[in-house]
Amino acid sequence: MMRCYKFVLFVIAAVLACGAHAFDPFVVKDIRIEGIQRTEAGTIFSYLPVKVGETMTDEKAAQAIRSLYATGFFRDVSLEVDSGVLIVVVQERPSIAQIEIVGAKEFSKEDLLKGLRAVGLADGRIFDRGLLDKAEQELKRQYISRGKYSAQITTTSTPLERNRVAVKFDIVEGDVAKIRQISIIGNQVFKEKDLIGLFKLRTPGLLTWFSKDDQYSKQKLAADLETLRSYYLDRGYLEFTADSTQISITPDKKDVYITIGVTEGPQYTVADVKLAGETLIPEVEARKLIKVKSGEIFSRSKLTESTKLLSDRIGNEGYAFANVNAVPELDKDKRKVNFTFFVDPGRRVYVRRINVTGNTRTRDEVVRREMRQLEGGWYSAEKITKSKQRVDRLGYFSEVNVETPSVPGTTDQVDLNISVVEKPTGNVLFGAGFGSEGVVLSGGITQQNVFGSGNHLGAQVNTSKVNTVYSLSFSQPYWTVDGVSRGFDLYHRKANPAALGLGLYDTSTTGGQARLGVPFTDLDNVSFGLGYESTNITAYPGAPILISNYVTTFGNKNTAVLGTVGWGRDNRDSAIYPTTGAISRANLETGLPGGTLRFYKVSAEHKRYIPLTRDFVFYANGEIGYGGGYAGKPLPFFRNYYSGGPTSVRGFYPANIGPHDINGDPMGGSRKLVGNVEVLFPFPGLQNDKSIRVSTFVDAGIIGSNYAFGDTRASAGVAVSYVSPFGPMKISFAQPFKTQFGDRTQKIQFQFGQQF
Q1: Are residues 668 and 655 in contact, defined by beta-carbon separation less than 8 angstroms?
Q2: Which domain holds residue 130?
Q3: How many folded domains does the chain comprise?
Q4: pLDDT number for residue 467
Q5: Residue at a domain's end among 380, 404, 422
Q6: Co-location of 125 and 187 in the same domain
Q7: 340-362: buried (b, 16+ CB within 10 Å) or exposed (e) per residue?
Q8: Rounded distance, CA 580 to CA 273, Å?
Q9: Which pLDDT score is estimated for 14?
Q10: Ranges of residues in the chain whose predicted pLDDT is under 70
Q11: pTM: predicted TM-score of the whole model, two decimal places
Q12: Which of the 8 DSSP states describes residue 683?
């Protein structure tokens, strides 16, 4: 039967515009869908404004076509009527069967496909020519972000069976455009080269192949302009502005030229500083927190520090949302500026709940027991900062972040949200070998966070005939809720160099120790230890002088009742990536009455971190040790101090600094003095990666029977530290510049610990 009516969208629109009906309204007896291949019929039914039994009109027909077009599934839609049957005829848009990317080297294909998916182009989705153009622009944008302005992208679409298409992107990446020149115009006070030296963006240099800082980036330029502005504002140029930035690219799109226009303005001096509002603390105390002083050249960094110190101090009283606003008043004729610090403490709030997230292995209680800010207590910025630092110093987490959002629906409550990123806290080492001794097994395991409890466990085994070791140690940092710790060490060590003709002696030591730690403050801890040790040494004819002298003085078999007292203080901001603070230790170890070995050892250590800039940190370490024996006897040789190697004075073999016997073997000494000075900074190009740092250092040390500075060994060099997914690694390149005859040097030293 001939179809009576056929309405296409533009026809309906024209008819409706004329106010005439294309057909008389009719009751729909049935609805039939034609032309669908992938789309479900039910999907089309859901967009139709009419159902079977209802009346079809011109308005509903126009609405149906508009709705179906709006889905984006169809490139053509028409309605037909046949004896009361509404026929919907559609032509589906093709779907994308596959996407092929050819020539991509700068990015992985997975990353590029992810970017295409973000703009709506992916396998199985509807093909849209407009969307294809948008996807091509997205790819070009990604290449431009890497400095490849000459990248060319050719897009082709190939029809396939079953109304599908294959999309192909042919990419010619081209060369990276490099910054050839950075110019600053308008500067008069400071030299252009000094200002450009503040920028991260720079012209090609020695390490820019790695850092990519010679490639233009809009984000990096914005950061550099802010750095430039801060530089001027910290030196009193209160009206400094960066007026313009011009980016020029050469026709071959290989070179970039950056020109920055600035207006410096006059330099301002602070005339007067006032306080206004409700400070809640004595004005004398508040003024001590203000670093901006009358008569000094204005500095924005001091102004920012002042507002932060004031808001934090008021925050310690429970006013979490205290607002401190420094309002300037400029006298342009005299080039003076007055500041009024307006203080609005807001409402006093308390912490409703502490939430810990990200700790998949570590128990909540391990984090919560480090909290100095308590639930239900008044908000304290100082206690929250201290809590974060204590959690960070645990060493279990690579990141610790703290937020204090307000509780919805309240004006006097906040939650304390602590999110952590866990890192491996265990070290494991296993080895096996076969030789003249037979099968030799060795292994060690250390876990600083056993089953997420915060307890420490370590074990070591070595079955070598030359060096047999069995040891076990355990520490419980929170034996009591007050932070009293306890632990123990058990060990058996046996050395038999005579078995391989390496030395005509053998030693055997068995012992154990119990430990107790008592916190006196949040930062200070005092430890006590009591142990027992039995040592057997047998010297054969031809044994090293060190061994023979010991047997002559003390005999073959000795025991020692060991007593230790120690003190430690740690206020570093982080155990993994410290930038400020210090760690100090002092320790006394002595052989108590009841054992045949009577001796004492006193040692102290101090490490300090001082931030120089945002990225550079100064580190200094000093260690001193002093020991001796009672009753006119010397310190036993196995209690001597030793130094040298990657953990003390780099560039020398481990334990090699100090006196040597006639065979060249190190003897150690009863006196120790070690000093290290370092400047730590991020690896070039990885400023935001806290897992890797570079340092330049100078190390020095003395080992002997006295502190003879003529016996000093010293070295200087460069080191790289990396907390890798497999464990902490450190490599140093050191050049000893003060040595003694017989010293064994080692310019390149490497440390690695396997983590789990």
Answers
A1: yes
A2: 95-172
A3: 6
A4: 73
A5: 422
A6: no
A7: ebebebeebbbbbebebeebeeb
A8: 30
A9: 38
A10: 1-23, 207, 427-444, 464-466, 497-503, 685-690, 724-728, 751-756
A11: 0.61
A12: P
